[in-house]
Amino acid sequence: MKTNVKPSNPGPPLTLLSIVIPARDEEGALPATVEHLHLELRLNQIPHEIVVVDDGSKDGTWRVLRELHQRIPELRPVQNPGEHGFGRAIILGLQNIRGDAVVIMMADESDDVRDVVRYWSVLNEGWDCVFGSRFVRGGGVIDYPPIKWLVNRLANFFIRIVFRIPLNDTTNAFKSYRRTVIEGCQPLIAPHFNLTVEIPLKAIVRGYSWTVIPITWRNRRYGVAKLKIKELGSRYFFICAYIWLEKYFSRGDFRKSASRAGAGVEAPSSAPAPSGPPAESKPGTN
Question: What pLDDT score was predicted for residue 220?
Fold first, then answer.
């Protein structure tokens, strides 16, 4: 992530941005998340849809989504009628998108909506994937629990070593992709938070171009965090092992055409840094 190299054969211009948000018992956080996101995208004249998947909520999440839809037609509420899980909710959301680009973000307003605008801008430079990192210059977190931070750093260090990649925030869910990447990473099989590493690692292993921009993260102000530390155990190891085997033993059967593959590098430093209160220097995790 030292130099800036544009994709050798960039993708076509994008026309519609889809944002997929999994939500479970998020009635307190969703109004601010959806309203702020919609306002930011509208002010920046970005054509968009917001696909929020209610993943078996037991509170008033579905009622809140229906009320928001009356005011924001770009919001598309979806209910998950099957087995629940963070990964399953995202997969269902991805199956319902209409856009040619997608951003996956959290329902608790921990992700900065201004970074969504930057994702759209950098994707339109021709990249297949744009990954956010809270651990590069310009990124950071606010109010992150120290134990989760330590576990996150260890997990991401392990992934960097095993896959020999410079990406240092693979476990973060807040990332963006062209629709062709999502289609090229099928089948998606991770049912829980381990989907956050399945998609980016598959995209990298299968040869899609990618770059990194700094992002900020703020701890939730409403509700209870859904990710538990035990999630970072066997489920993550299974997904990493599964994709590692593909990387070294599939003989390139799933790779994107080499003529359009690109190396991952850091995005241009000229990209506008997030405004607002400065983030703490200590990085965090989802």
Answer: 56
Cβ proximity of 97 and 20 under 8 Å: yes
Residue from 28, 26, 51 nearest 38 by CA = 51
Asked if residues 30 and 23 have their Cβ atoms less than 8 Å apart, the reply is: yes
Domain at 17-266, CATH from 3.30.70.1670, 3.30.2350.10, 3.90.550.10, 3.30.1380.10: 3.90.550.10
Helices 113-123 and 30-43: crossing angle in degrees, nearest 10, is: 40
Alpha carbons 188 and 173: distance in angstroms, whole number: 15
Per-residue pLDDT tens digits for 62-78: 999 999 999 999 999 99
Q: Give the span between the Cα atoms of 96 and 223, in whole angstroms.
A: 26
User: Is the preceding omega at residue 187 within 30 degrees of 0, hence cis?
Assistant: yes
